[in-house]
Here is the input.
Amino acid sequence: MTPAYPKLKPSHVSGVMKVQMSLFNQREDVKYYQVELFDLDFNSMPFSTTYRIMKVDYKERKDFEVYIRKSDLDNPLYLCTISKVVKPRSSSPLISSRICSKVMEETK
Amino acid sequence: MKYLAIPLIALASPALAGSVDIVGNVEAKCVIQTDKSGVYGNPTASTLSTSPSDGGVLPVVRFDVAIADYYTANITHPSSFSSSPALTDSVAWTGSTSVSKTSDAGMSGYDSAKVVYDNTTVFDLSVAGSTWFSTSSTATYAASKPFTGGTYTAVVQAECIAK
Here is the structure.
């Protein structure tokens, strides 16, 4: 997921900022990714986006926007995409991946 | 009329020799790929293990970072089954994560510099390139009871966190 440090831009809604993100799927075993926003202690934070869970085929790129309340931006936040893994038929460990960008006040 | 055509051809010719720019952009990014899916071996009735000596396969995750010093790799080995047959007793978990392959000699210090807390191992991705991490996981059923027959799944969480 890029960028590592997304730039905050004003949105069409007062008191809400937006960031433009891009996700490229390099995992052949994953087709769905979930978008999440966390504070620095990884507590969930409110946000809005078109699809919280989106389908991204292998080697496909998807651009998306995330809307964050201005009042939540006093401290840095982690904007993450989390892979949704499918339950396998054999006994095995699954690999769940999470990539997090840092949304920082300085980028306002 | 033919005199008018000469300057027109002269004007048009630079366009035929025009160049097309190819623009590239290298930006900080982290890509996680599954290099090898793991498998639990069942060396004894009460043990499930990814260790090759126990008949298992270690899961391997590859992290690619485009620019140095932008991310940490946080890898968490399992502490519970995400799906399993009904178990009546507790399961003891052990595990660890280490570097199995690197694309750059400068990454040789990753293993010695790693930080381990709880079930999570943190690597500072201070060199640009690819790093392969393998995670071992062992589940032992309480009091050496045999595991119930069925499929057992646990999750290794691989995270790439911007610094």
